[in-house]
Design a protein that fits this description.
This protein is an all-alpha fold and 149 residues long. 74% of the residues lie in helices and 0% in strands.
């Protein structure tokens, strides 16, 4: 069963269970998929990789919104955003720990032959492809900067 089909089934289950958080989260994913399919001419096929990127983007948006709500002293709204993010994260592969990311990036630096911060672009290009879906870009970037400095 493709990821798109799993999400469609999750929407149905959330509706039957009257779980508004899960329903809103899965509907947001479905909305992103529909936007992707209909953008620029439409009739595009969506791969599971495309859907994982969309989900990562949505999770990041939810977490950033939650931070802003906490800063504005609106904890109930932050809790809702974080609950939706948690539902979305169920569809993502297990995220690597920062230590595991560090090991992978050290391998990439050796492979690319990077020596200084000037080589960050080369390392980031390879690292983002190698760690796609396994870690967020902010973590990857911070570790690359630390290792090349």
């Amino acid at each position: 069963m493709s990821l798109e089909q799993q999400i469609q089934e999750a929407i149905k289950e959330a509706m039957k269970a009257h779980d508004t958080v899960a329903m809103n989260a899965t509907r947001a994913i479905k909305g992103e998929i529909l936007l992707f399919k209909t953008s620029e001419g439409g009739a595009k096929e969506v791969t599971d990789g495309d859907i994982l990127k969309m989900i990562q983007k949505l999770v990041k948006q939810r977490k950033e919104a939650a931070e802003q709500y906490v800063a504005a002293n609106r904890q109930e709204l932050a809790d809702n955003e974080l609950a939706e993010a948690a539902v979305m994260e169920k569809y993502l592969p297990k995220q690597l720990s920062p230590e595991e990311v560090r090991v992978k990036i050290q391998e990439i630096i050796a492979q690319v032959g990077a020596a200084s911060i000037k080589d960050m672009g080369k390392v980031m290009g390879v690292a983002n492809k190698a760690l796609a879906g396994l870690s967020d870009g902010r973590t990857i970037s911070a570790i690359v900067k630390e290792l090349l400095a």
